[in-house]
């Protein structure tokens, strides 16, 4: 049945996209279903082929469908996880703008957990041993005059003392030379990504993202109307040469080069240089999400510096967070941006939530400047290395040696990869029913056929890791 053309021009392709997506989410188009060729589909709807192609490309970028070379386009297996029960989805509230609808619909792609962390939840740092007493003591040492000053409206880019402390820390720990004036304080890395998307992308702009990769990044980009273009990963990270050929109009690439999320690979120097060359040649931006770059377990000489530290990185925006190095409840992170963009980022922060709490910024500045952050990280690196080995041993014991996790010299989780085509969702659901958080790799894939499970170890004691291993061990053998 042709689509009626009563809506304003320019919305037809959006309606075709919504129609297809609704059919997938409500189960009318099931996982594995082959879509009609674009010409046939366009003819049946009474629209142009370009209209259908736009809708299909967007669904492919969002992970709802996948193209198989020489075999057509299919509804992806990952889409099955978002399909609604028989009664259908709850529609977004009426009256939302197009962008409001995009943001409201992120729940179908990304639901950030907000329950207490249990093994093997990824990204959960050690919190029980955080030096809360020291933190409180630093807070109490502020004079009444200092407290009064921090109770006023503050610089939206962040308190000068904290921006200076972060700049010095980045030089010492990640090899990044930047001025304090380039540091914009925000509420964690997710807000940093949001600021970047709002300020540097227009609706319809294409962004290269890692596949598999972090869905929170894709959700932010899609919520701003950008189109996420999946790029396959290999042992050196994002395959930027292939991406440049496939998506020549891309305006940005978002990468996790030190410890790729979720596969754990590091981006080699040659690949890093190729990425920087691509950005210069295409007048594009590179966003470096260094979400757990501080957790490298070799000696200082063995640690990989940030991409942003390399020559020619003028078009790199560096996103950092204290949610992993300290704790997520702190809600403080930062973005290092080129000098010309600082004012725009500060004003975008002011429009969003004015500024971060002054007391927290002041305490964190002292925590860094007085060496407490360095000491805390040294303790956490030792602890996390120990817990990683506990996990490896526990899972091997639970499977009589059948599952041998590969150790890693960085990060807070390990990946156990399974053969392509493995159903990794079912064991994860059964593990959750037994009280264990076991994330399937497919949850982070768009087009990638890679499957497996992610096992976080950083925030859990040895006994909890061992108990969780006994639960999931038999599930991974089926």
What's the SSE blueprint?
Elements: H1 12-25, H2 38-45, H3 49-61, E1 65-68, E2 72-75, H4 98-104, H5 132-140, H6 144-150, H7 160-174, E3 183-186, H8 188-200, E4 206-211, H9 215-223, E5 227-234, E6 237-238, H10 240-246, E7 252-255, H11 269-282, E8 285-289, E9 316-321, E10 333-336, H12 342-353, H13 358-369, H14 372-398, E11 413-418, H15 425-433, E12 439-440, E13 451-456, H16 462-476
Summarize the structure.
The chain has 478 residues and is an alpha/beta fold. It is 40% helix and 13% strand.
In words, what does this structure look like?
This protein is an alpha/beta fold. The chain has three domains: 12-91, Arc Repressor Mutant, subunit A (Orthogonal Bundle); 132-371, Aspartate Aminotransferase, domain 2, CATH 3.40.640; 375-476, Aspartate Aminotransferase, domain 1, CATH 3.90.1150. Helices cover 40% and strands 13% of the residues. The strands form three sheets. It has an eight-stranded mixed sheet, sandwiched between helices. Strands 11-13-12 form a three-stranded antiparallel sheet, with helices on one face. β1 (65-68) and β2 (72-75) form a beta hairpin. It is globular and about 75 Å long. The two termini are 45 Å apart. 43% of the residues are buried.
């Amino acid at each position: 049945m042709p689509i009626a053309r009563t809506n304003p021009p320019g919305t037809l392709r959006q309606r075709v996209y919504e129609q297809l997506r609704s059919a997938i989410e409500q189960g009318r188009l099931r996982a594995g279903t082959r879509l009609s060729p674009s010409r046939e589909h366009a003819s049946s709807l009474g629209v142009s082929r370009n209209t259908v192609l736009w809708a299909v490309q967007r669904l492919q970028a969002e992970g709802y469908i996948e193209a198989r070379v020489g075999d057509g386009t299919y509804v992806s297996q990952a889409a099955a996880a978002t399909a609604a029960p028989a009664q259908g989805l709850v529609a977004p509230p009426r009256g939302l703008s197009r962008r409001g609808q995009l943001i409201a619909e992120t729940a179908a792609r990304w639901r950030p957990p907000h329950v207490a962390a249990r093994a093997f939840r990824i990204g959960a740092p050690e919190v029980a041993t955080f030096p809360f007493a020291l933190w409180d003591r630093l807070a109490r040492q502020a004079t009444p005059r200092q407290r009064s000053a921090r109770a006023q409206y503050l610089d939206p880019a962040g308190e000068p003392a904290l921006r200076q402390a972060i700049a010095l820390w980045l030089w010492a720990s990640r090899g990044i030379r930047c001025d304090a004036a380039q540091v914009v304080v925000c509420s964690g890395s997710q807000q940093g990504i949001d600021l970047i998307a709002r300020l540097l992308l227009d609706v319809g702009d294409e962004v290269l993202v890692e596949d598999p990769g972090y869905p929170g990044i894709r959700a932010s980009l899609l919520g701003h109307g950008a189109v996420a273009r999946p790029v396959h990963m290999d042992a050196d990270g994002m395959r930027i040469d292939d991406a440049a050929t496939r998506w020549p109009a891309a305006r940005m690439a978002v990468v996790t080069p030190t410890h790729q999320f979720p596969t754990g690979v590091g981006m080699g120097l040659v690949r890093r240089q190729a990425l920087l060359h691509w950005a210069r040649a295409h007048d594009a931006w590179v966003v470096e999400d260094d979400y757990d770059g501080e957790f490298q377990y070799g000696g200082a000489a063995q640690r990989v510096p940030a991409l942003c530290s390399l020559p020619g990185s003028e078009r790199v925006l560096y996103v950092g967070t204290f949610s992993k190095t300290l704790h997520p409840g702190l809600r403080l992170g930062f973005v290092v941006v080129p000098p010309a963009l600082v004012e725009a980022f500060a004003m975008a922060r002011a429009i969003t939530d004015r500024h971060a709490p002054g007391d927290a910024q002041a305490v964190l500045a002292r925590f860094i400047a007085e060496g407490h952050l360095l000491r805390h990280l040294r303790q956490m690196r030792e602890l996390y290395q120990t817990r990683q080995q506990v996990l490896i041993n526990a899972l091997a014991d639970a499977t009589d040696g059948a599952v041998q996790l590969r150790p890693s010299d960085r990060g807070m989780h390990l990946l156990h990869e399974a053969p392509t085509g493995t159903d990794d969702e079912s064991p994860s659901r059964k593990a959750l029913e037994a009280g264990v958080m076991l994330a399937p790799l497919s949850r982070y894939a768009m087009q990638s056929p890679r499957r497996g499970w992610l096992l976080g170890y950083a925030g859990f004691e040895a006994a909890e890791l061992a108990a969780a291993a006994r639960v999931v061990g038999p599930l991974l053998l089926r």
